[in-house]
Amino acid sequence: MSITAAPVSAHGFDAYLAHKRRRRINNWLLVACSVALLAWCFWDTIMFDTDWQRMGGALGIGGTLERFLLIDWSLLPKLLVPALETLMMATLGTILGCVFSLPVAWFGAANVTPSKYFFYPLGRFLMVLSRSIHEIIWALLFVGAVGLGALPGILAVAMRSVGFISKITAEAIENIDPKPVEAIRAVGGNQFQVMYYGIVPQILPVIIGTIIFEWDINIRRSAIMGLVGAGGLGLVFFRQMAMFNYGGVTLVVLAVLVLIAIGEVISHYARKAVI
Amino acid sequence: MMQITTTATHSMPAVKRKWSRYRHPESTIRFAVILAILAFLGYSIAYLNIDLSRILGAFPRLVEILATRYFPPDLNYVSDADFLRSVLRTLEMSLLGGFFGVVCSIPLAWLAARNITVSKRIAYPFGRFAIMSSRSIHETIWTILFVTVLGFGMLAGTLALTVFCVGFAGKLFSDELEAIDMGPVEAMRSVGANPLQVFQYAVLPQVRVAFTGIAIYTWDVAFRAATVVGFFGGGGMGWYLKRTTQQMESTRVAAILLLIIGLVLLAELGSGWLRKRIGKMR
């Protein structure tokens, strides 16, 4: 945008003006295209697809909202155990995810990978695969594989967190200071000793911070695992929804909020203690 | 700390101590915390009745199921015109949800950034709470709530994605805002600019590029979420996923899953490329 960025030529100023004009036209075209695209999306999704009659106008919506706002407090004592289950599912899922992401991070870090042509792309692919499949889909697959219960939920949460943990870990491994590694090699350390004394101490704070962050996210993930057949708060939500007890639904949502607020406080202090 | 160690060396001179990284209170606390975590893990394994051998057994079983039941993916099903239209609608929902989410989250992030917020007493907690609560509740729960209130269809899905994007982008935006250089802000304030002017002339120019990158990333994540929003009645391709899973048409499920993975990879590559280009403009 500044004058120094203008192309310098024989007709310097004219060229600058032409460059600027072209740029402005490009910007306008970009904005116009985006606006047209968004307007079309808006028309197609909101005007065309929505059944306004069935929604019943402001009164109908207000009526439904009112049923949500009459909170059913009698459900509160029944929420404690599912909340604990959700927390347990999140914790176990995170730990399991860490275990799974160890080999993935090892494969996917360019400087320690066993083979650049086979294992490195494999590790990278596993990272992307884990992140690109939504936790609901992972849960559906595992419900098919191991049946109903908390286990498919834990496995789904674990698989979903592999991508993030191993990606950050691999990046941390790639950015380590190579000198300790060289020193351990120079005094005759084997591969395992290099890993344990040269690499792990350097990346440990980053990894623990990431794990705590991921645990925080996993609480909200495991709160919905009940929708596809694992227990916890999601199951209570699903049941209240099926009974059309909207007051209870609101209470479950509030319980999730409180649980996550607690998790956020814990993870805040834990991260402060680690780093 | 220094004093304690010096007095300690004076009082008990010739005790040879084994070196350890953490001294008494810290080491005990660390030990207790690790013990507590392990106890919690053990208790939860026992409470949730988890058979540890089944965890490892799950993967061979998953592969077996994928190979026998899901294997030849029914690609005809996903090349059907109706299905492709639903894919297009998923894309539309993610675009709209991402756009509305980004538009709503910029003012909320402004309120929720500690250094430039309008008022620390009222606006800051409000912005924080709005962002935190839309982030805490999972997008599928938002979808179910909106579907209940507004009925099935893409409107519910779009609104759910909007709330999801408010939470996601709002946090990144406010983190970015809290890291800006305060010099221009103070200069504008000292010549008597109101908060809006400060935001427009001192803050926005600093974060424009970063915000564009975050907005593109938000769309990427919103697209990932949009593929399953339909599972709970929010429109788009998720509805086909629900129908085929409930009718046990595994080969079709496999085809849909493959398509989802492919599309998400494409979206991720596209957004990565765009973000790299925008990062160069900095």
Automatic annotation (TrEMBL), chain A:
Topology with respect to the bilayer: Multi-pass membrane protein
Annotated keywords: Cell membrane, Membrane, Transmembrane, Transmembrane helix, Transport
Entry keyword Cell membrane: yes
Gene3D superfamilies: MetI-like
Single GO cellular component term: plasma membrane
Residue intervals of the ABC transmembrane type-1 domain: 83-267
Principal subcellular localisation of the protein: membrane
GO MF term list: ABC-type phosphonate transporter activity
Highest taxon of source: Bacteria
InterPro entries for this protein: MetI-like, MetI-like_sf, PhnE/PtxC
Subcellular location: Cell membrane
Transmembrane segments: 25-43, 87-109, 136-158, 194-213, 219-238, 250-270
Family of the protein in this entry: Belongs to the binding-protein-dependent transport system permease family.
Official protein name in the record: Phosphonate ABC transporter, permease protein PhnE
